[in-house]
Amino acid sequence: MKRAYDLLVKDLPEDQKEGVIAQIGRTARRAVARVQGQQQTKGEAVTA
User: Fold this and answer.
1) Cα 34 from Cα 7, distance rounded (Å)
2) pLDDT in tens, 1-11
């Protein structure tokens, strides 16, 4: 996973890399949480 992030930020200045990697991680985490929330909502609607 670290290698994938390194590839994404390879052309950025050294002082910006860590911040961008953190931002990508936060965005990915939010996207996963959103999808999981939608799946739970659908599951509850079907069983109700």
Assistant:
1) 26
2) 889 989 999 99
